[in-house]
Structures are given as structure tokens and as C-alpha cells.
Amino acid sequence: MQKRVIITGGAGYVGASLVEVLQADERVQEIVVYDCLIRNDRRFFFAEKESFGLSKVRFVQGDILDTRKLSAACAGMDVLVHLAAFVDEPYNHSQHIQYDQVNAFGTMSVVRAIEETPTIRKVVHLSSTAVYGFRKEIHPSDKPNPQNGYAISKYRGELFLEGLSQGNNALDLKTLRSGHIHGCNRVMRYDTLVHAFLFEATTGGLVQIHGNGEQIRSFVALHRVAAALAIEVFEDHFEHGSVLADFQCDVNRILTWLQSRMGQIEYRYLTPAIKHPSQSFQGLPGIDEPSMDATLQAFQDSFVLSGLGKQ
User: Fold this and answer.
1) CATH superfamily, domain at 3-182+219-245
2) Tens digit of each residue's pLDDT (9 = 90 or more) over 14-44
3) Contact predicate 81/5, CB 8 Å
4) For a surface tag, which of 75, 158, 226, 279 has the fewest beta carbons within 10 Å of its beta carbon?
């Protein structure tokens, strides 16, 4: 039986890649993209027509805080993938009101819409490794300990969905927690760590590093995240609370990798005397250079200008 899937935040960075995967899957009948276009970004709707089409997709512009509109969009759906979120990188300690509104109370609105849609039997939720807080040797089964506004709001969203699933035995909930995502698509963000580094290095700009660069973070390729979400639409492949991460390293290691590929790069430590806290996971390897090389190559292949750089 073919699935009808609604994706909150489906016109965003991760959503665009997930939509492409589901579009190509014969098991999918319809995809509803529910998105408020919070960043005023319309790139989701445009691409080279020869590359692909989205014949299964129906777009609904709406805010997840609008429960009535969201419930109407959910009508007849089998699966809900919840991607809608707000993050203001790298200042994920700021914008607390927006974090709570979108990531926490927005998810509560999603819960209410699910409650009003008996056809939805599967919910796939993309959360963040930020919910674990800053510590070493984390295991995915460890209890979350969020330590900034963004992480707290994401964990609250997780709890709202878990409360729903505990009261509804017919509902299958799967939350996946992602590290920092890198990889190119037509709606890629440029404020994330890896992408910001790539853009500045490619255009001859200034790579800016917060703190002394020794803070460790986990990273995952975009195509891996989209594939994991798509798998969960149809089957129970991952454990609830699974971590999506390919490797971990400090920010300085990302800079060293980029220098090895692009030569001399102008960079600056904005606050070199500050040591930001780290987050590391048990058994997660160091930098995956082939994965990063693939992102760099895709970035360069899509870049249309040449001869850039400071005079």
C-alpha cells in the first residue's frame, strides 16, 4: 500500500532532500510539504526542469503554530515527518522566544494535529544531538541534558511527542538526533559551520572561528540524514533516540582539512581566549575526509563564478 506523507518544514534544507528521496520511491503516493517559509526562501520551488520534477508534491504554506491549518493539511495522511524547527547558528544560546515558539510549542501544535488525524500511524521526528548537552563519551541511550536555549526547546519538543505516543499505542514514534549537517542541495544553508567555511574560503573571504577552535562537534552528511528519515517512513530501522553522525572533530580540524584542500586561507579567531565546551560520542571516529571532500566538490561544482578572491 502506498503511503501519503506530510512533512513539516519540508521546503527547508533537510526537507528538500527528503522530498527528492520520497518522490523517487514507488511506495509513496503523495507528499504534502507544510512550511511557513520562515527565512523567506523560495529556492525549494525552482530547479533545472531537466533534473527532476516533484509530481507527487502538494505545497501548503502555513505555520505549525496554526493547529487548525496544520490539521487540515494532515487529513488523510499516513505518516508525518516533523522537520520544522528554528536555529540561529552559531548563536544557539540566543533567540530563546523563537526557539520555544517553534521548536517546543510548535511541536505541541503538531501533537494536537496528530491527535485529530486518526489515519496517521507513524511519526518521524528529526531532533538534534544538542539535547545531550556538552560532555564527553556520550552514548545515544544517555539521558539528555540540554544546556542552551536551542537544545532545551528541542528536548521539550521530544517530550511532547513522547507524551503523545505513550497515550496512543497505535502510534509509532521515531525520534532521530542529528549532528551538524553538511552537504549541498538547492536550498542549502550558508550559516552552518562547514558551509560558512566553504563559502568564505571559495570567495576569498575571512573564515571566522568562535572561541579557540578546540570545541568538538559531531557531523553528518545531508544524504545520510535524508536516507535515514526516508527509511523510517516505511520501516523500523533505527532505535528511538538514535544519533545520526558520521564523525566528530574539533573546529580547528575542519580548518586544517580545508587548508589542505584549498591552500592558503585567511581566517580569524574572534574570541581566541575563550574555550567553548565540547560534545563527543563513544565510538564515533575522527574526521571523515572523503565525506567532506564530497561536500567540497559538490560546492565547487555548483559555484558559477571563477577568479574570486581578495585583490
Assistant:
1) NAD(P)-binding Rossmann-like Domain (3.40.50.720)
2) 999 999 999 999 999 999 999 999 878 888 8
3) yes
4) 75
